[in-house]
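Comment on the following before class.
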Amino acid sequence: MAKQGQMGSSISVASTDAVPLVRKQRGRIADRTARIVFAACAILLVLIIVSIFVFIAIQSSNFLTKDPHAGTLFRSSLWDPTGNYGDPQYGTLGLILGSIFTTLIAVIIVTPLAFGMALFMTELTPRWLENILRPMLEIFTGMPSVVIGFLAIAYLVPLIASIVGPHVPNTATAGAGWFAATIVLILMILPTVISISIDALRAVPNSVREASLALGSTKWQMMRNAVIPAATTGLATAVLLGMARAIGEALAVSMVLKGNQLPTNWFTWQGWFQPNVNLTQPIVLYFSEAAGTERSSYFMLGLILLVISFIFVCGSRYLASRSVYK
């Protein structure tokens, strides 16, 4: 009987020791499975991005190798792939100029507004007001671009035309152009830059604020001399990502540009209130009806936009990697 009792106790001890081992083995299997799944997802994402670059580059190469007029790509401002003015022309200087001008002006205006709003929401606003403003900001961020473009056509363009119409050469087309496109870009990238700026400011440790206030700084001095310098890289990242979105925005901007060529008076203030162009507009308006070399030329425009956006994103990641507080 004693022997049987010893055998029973030994079996129960062995079974209790085996339970943790089984759990460990199951946990290891689950960890390995999760690693494999996550690695496969990461590899798939990289392959998709590389495939997009390769596909657009191949389609663009057809344009460069098959059309004798491809040499005018960066040497002319006349974009006429259908040859309405004679031989087909593929000058992108006017398109690039439109994208750069509208993006830069929009970012210059958005940056102080976004930083000021972010500082207000992180440093000054009471909790109850933040609970109201933050959901409104998120709704504004997710607003479809077609809605903003529709509102701009219905109200913004006529308003601009009523003000500057008597002072431009063509009253019938006044209101559309770079100025309206810049206003649209401001409305589209402002909530994005604000949201990222808020995250950058909240990443600054409270000890930085407390140390600045302990040295006798006022609230404004604390924000100017301590918080903003500590969040510089995050704020710069917000601006770069806003620029990337602005330069790639297509639908809403195309709705208010209404042009097909760079106007002759683009270097004057009147040129900002006449129909104009940028890089995304021809793709939105004419790509679906294009064929052959003309279709490949629109892929070239897409490649230029993709490279510019890629540069902006790489710049934002570089700045984020140099952040003091992570």
About this structure: The domain at 72-321 is CATH 1.10.3720.10 (MetI-like fold). The CA atoms of residues 177 and 257 lie 4 Å apart. The longest helix spans residues 2-66. The mean pLDDT is 85.
